[in-house]
Amino acid sequence: MQKTLLIGLNNSANFIVLTHYFIVFTSLMCGIHCIVDISFSLNHASIEKMVAQSKHRGQDHTSILSTQTENYQISLGHNLLKINNITDKSQQPFTDENYTLIFNGEIYNWKDLDKEFNFLNQSNSDTETLFYYLQLVAQDLNIWGKLKGIFAFVFWDKKQNILLSARDTYGVKPLYFALNNNCLTFSSEINSLIASGLVDKALHSPSIQEYLQYKFPLLPNTVFKNIQHHPCHLQFWDLTKKPLELPRGFLDKVENTIPTESNKILTQTNILLENAIHHQYSEHFPPALLLSGGVDSTLLLAKSTELGYKLPCLSIVCHEKNFTQDSYFAKLAAKQYNTHLQEVELQERHLELLPTLFQEADQPIGDGAIFTTYLICKEAKKDFRVLWSGAGADELFGGYNRHWAFCQYLKYPSFWLMAKKIARFLPFGRLGKRFLKGIDTSPSKTFINFCSLDILENRTATNTQIQTLDDALQWDREQYLQGDVLSLTDFWSMKHTIEVRVPYLDDDLANFARQIPANTLLRHGRKWILKHLLEQKGGKIYTQRKKEGFGLPFGHWLHNPKNSFLWDFTNNSQNAIFEYVPKGRFNYILQKHLSKQEDYTQELFALCALGWWLEKYPKV
Questions:
Q1: Alpha-carbon separation of residue 214 from 85, 191, 448, 456 (angstroms)
Q2: How sure is the predictor about 90, in pLDDT bands with cuts at 50, 70 and 90?
Q3: Which of 218, 228, 260, 293 is in Cβ range 3.0-4.6 Å of 330 for a Cys bridge?
Q4: In contact, 302 and 537? CB cutoff 8 Å
Q5: pLDDT of 538-568, one tens digit each?
Q6: What is the C-alpha radius of gyration for the chain, rounded to an integer number of angstroms?
Q7: Cβ atoms within 10 A of the Cβ of 40, count?
Q8: What is the CB neighbour count within 10 angstroms for residue 348?
Q9: Helix (H) or strand (E) holding 184
Q10: CA distance 572 to 558
Q11: CA distances to 336, 474, 488 from 480, in Å
Q12: DSSP 8-state secondary structure symbol assigned to residue 350
């Protein structure tokens, strides 16, 4: 006999279990949580703790469904942030007598799917479309791969005793899971999995070593032994298996019809970028743009203006001489494309926030963008629910300095190996010398060196063999983009209940770009496709500015003795930092930087982030 409990956790909720919850808007940005327990020892408090831990992900409505079958207990929880049409009928879990869905994201082609499969969509929503579509997928896995959008979901088929879970192709929407013999848990955030009390908090030392090399642990792992990133495809879970097992995976289908001529590539990219802007724009909560004055964000501004969308902009400004030129170019772009620019000032006093922020993180990411993302989203929350970002453009279109450096290395390996030997006599700047230091006879080691921090004296090799430029770009798309850029963007924006959209990762545009051969992407230099499109809109000044790296003046501020509090975690004997980084090496890096003999800005930021995060997980 099945028992069902559905709880609405907001004060206005007053409802009972119904056949359907009709959701009459087309965009849900939220937190999703699920627990399956085959040992029947599930405490309802676990799912409540998960939902409460993620309340910042959606405060418009929160609800939980708990039930059990003959084989297992299951609880599904949901935090709702409305992005489109507002209604009081917007509860999830979305359920009927046989199926239940929890969903974070937006399906852009839901109306096309309604027509293709003749769905009777009474709520006129993408949620109901997804609900019906997954019923078909559960019967025939061969029809998977038709969704276009950004999403993470868990779908329970009560009749077949299966779960379907998935993330979008590029990992825009987060989903983590933990599996032991008796219990399977999912959540949008690692902190919620930990809050459940069902997941072992043991740390994964190899992943922490990877963090110290790359600024993030390599996917699918996290810094916890028993928690993984959900892969960016469909997973099919058989709930009748005892013990529960890792499932089969089903990849999306991508067609390969890519032109090779430059003019055709430019034309198609332009069309797909315009479509992406149309897809991602919400009239109910108009977005603002995170504007750096670089190619990616300025092109979004120029194209949106051309298409009739008025995008107010936000930009970080810092008056330190060591800061980037972003604020100068952002002002220029806002004036040129006739939009309002709100500047968010970054000051040295903001360093006081870092210890707390690092400890709030679900896992450490040693990227200064966590700081600027947090600050700009905190300010944006006063006026906006949705921001647009240029994230993904560098990975898709070959925009990083390391892409160009690796391209040149592959063309002339003997020359660069010789140049490395005489590097100290050559007129290279800091970045050039850093790349020369990374040159190796092995292409794979060379690219990994280009991606690595200089913390560990013995670097670990990736399992992926990187022999070609295509391999290198694929590594950045599958690892750096998802494990660093998108992870930190989602986590720190949602801390302020802000949804960040990434138009460059719109399915059609991203699928098109990833099929263009890497040599073509760099045929005329880094990111030439996007630069050409921007120059067509009068943006040549932005395409000619230098690519700037770590923009936070963190390294400069470290020279101020007042900021030595950032290393206070080293005074805690229970902090495990020196179990992962030899104390001598740690002190060497810090002293070399403070004496201005070397620039270890990025390395010290990563060490600071890890050290404070480890305060939550003292030595056992």
A1: 41, 22, 9, 11
A2: very low
A3: 293
A4: yes
A5: 999 999 988 765 578 999 999 999 999 999 9
A6: 24
A7: 10
A8: 16
A9: strand 183-187
A10: 20
A11: 33, 10, 11
A12: G
Residues of the chain with CATH 3.40.50.620: 262-397+484-543
Nearest to 24 by CA among 85, 73, 115: 85
Q: 220: pLDDT confidence band, cut at 50, 70 and 90?
A: very high
Find residue 416's DSSP bridge partners: none
Strand order in the sheet with 386-388: 341-345, 313-317, 288-290, 386-388, 499-501
Residues 6 or more apart whose Cβ sits within 8 Å of residue 569? 355, 575, 577, 611, 612, 614, 615
**pLDDT, tens digit, 9 for 90 and up, residues 452-498:** 999 998 877 777 789 999 999 999 999 999 999 999 999 999 999 99
Within a 10 A sphere around the Cβ of 287, how many other Cβ atoms? 24
pLDDT at position 29 over 70: no
Distance (Å, whole) CA 338 – CA 406? 38
User: What is the number of other CB atoms lying within 10 angstroms of the CB of residue 601?
Assistant: 20
Distance CA 23, CA 26 (A): 8
Among the listed residues 32, 34, 40, the one whose alpha carbon sits nearest the alpha carbon of residue 73: 40
Instruction: Please give the angle made by the CA atoms of 450, 515 and 504, to the nearest 5 degrees.
Output: 75
Amino acid code (one letter) for 334: A
Can you list the positions of beta strands (E) in 307-370?
313-317, 341-345
CB environment 448-458: b (16+ within 10 A), e (fewer):
bbbbbbbbbee
Which residues make up the CATH 3.60.20.10 domain(s) of the chain?
3-199+226-250
Q: Is the pLDDT of residue 417 over 60?
A: yes
Single out the residue of 485, 459, 395, 394 nearest to residue 603, CA to CA.
459
User: What CATH number is given for 3-199+226-250 in this structure?
Assistant: 3.60.20.10
Instruction: Please report the DSSP string for 537-567 in residue order.
Output: TT-HHHHSSPP----STHHHHTTSGGGGGGG
Interstrand relation of 313-317 and 176-179 (parallel, antiparallel or unpaired): unpaired
Position 585 scores a pLDDT of: 97
Helix (DSSP H) and strand (DSSP E) numbers for the chain: 25, 18
Specify whether the CB–CB gap between 392 and 510 falls below 8 A: yes
DSSP state of 595: T
Q: What is the pTM of this model?
A: 0.92
Residue 590 has pLDDT above 70, yes or no: yes
- Average per-residue pLDDT for the chain: 89
Q: Determine contact, residues 385/394, Cβ cutoff 8 Å.
A: no
Query: Architecture of domain 262-397+484-543 in CATH?
Result: 3-Layer(aba) Sandwich (3.40)
Q: At what angle do helices 401-411 and 443-451 cross, to 10 degrees?
A: 160
User: What DSSP string describes 245-296?
Assistant: ---EEEPPP-------SHHHHHHHHHHHHHHHHHHH--SSS--EEE--SSHH
Q: Which two tokens stand for residue 399?
A: 């925009």
Q: Give the contacts of 534 (CB within 8 A, at least 6 positions apart).
A: 295, 298, 299, 302, 540, 542, 543
Which 3 state secondary structure label does DSSP give 237? Answer: strand
